[in-house]
Amino acid sequence: MQTVFTDFDAAYWQARYATGRDGWDAHAITPPLQAYFDQLDVARQPRILIPGAGRAYEAEYLHQRGFRHVFVADIAPEALAALAQRVPDFPKEHLLLADFFGLPNDPPYDLIVEQTFFCALNPALRPAYARQCAHLLRPGGTLMGLLFDTDFGSVQEPPFGGSQEEYRAYFTPYFEFRHFETATNSLKPRQGRELFICLKKK
Ligand SMILES: C[S@@+](CC[C@H](N)C(=O)[O-])C[C@H]1O[C@@H](n2cnc3c(N)ncnc32)[C@H](O)[C@@H]1O
């Protein structure tokens, strides 16, 4: 029998923030993303999207380092409000209160950053996630970040786990794989349980 999940909509996520059920929140940029961002060339001013950004410490980090085309998208107002409060000069027009799956690709992005967004989606949406990332990126653009490579058991709400083998199938039609291996610098509770991915759009 097929597993049926509830609809994890804006009200669901807003309620998780409001009730403090936000165990995913690292309260700071995580080491794998920081290390990746530190080797980006700020002079190129890439157009960067962080979908399902939550409180968006990555956007704060990039903004403070001079990246001026950073966009965050989330369906929970609470998440975007937290970034706006911490970083008052973050451009308000870069705070997208929007469903990732409906975001336009004009102009396209150079880089999409993934962290605990993929695992927050109903797993039935995973093929659509890979397709939408490819749609939003320019040819040669990059999808990078972290995916849980672990089994959370038979849960009825996020996070949902998975395996490297499963994920490969979603991304192969659209991306070339530069990195797709266990992250070496994960936060302690996530060590050995997440993949560092860096994929180039074909
Ligand atoms: C598990 S949280 C992760 C937040 C953040 N990436 C982090 O690591 O702290 C998942 C986030 O995705 C957002 N979200 C869920 N579905 C979404 C969708 N379809 N479009 C945009 N954001 C969505 C939720 O509101 C929530 O903020």
Automatic annotation (TrEMBL):
What Gene3D superfamilies does this protein map onto?
Vaccinia Virus protein VP39
Keywords in alphabetical order = Methyltransferase, Phosphoprotein, S-adenosyl-L-methionine, Transferase
Record GO terms (molecular function) = S-adenosylmethionine-dependent methyltransferase activity
Q: Which domain of life is it from?
A: Bacteria
| The UniProt record lists the keyword Protein biosynthesis | no
Give GO terms for biological process: methylation
Coiled-coil segments on the chain, per record: none
PANTHER family in the cross-refs: CYSTEINE SULFINATE DESULFINASE_CYSTEINE DESULFURASE AND RELATED ENZYMES (PTHR32183:SF6), PTHR32183
Name of this protein: Methyltransferase domain-containing protein
- The record lists the organism as Hymenobacter properus
Q: Name the lineage.
A: Bacteria, Pseudomonadati, Bacteroidota, Cytophagia, Cytophagales
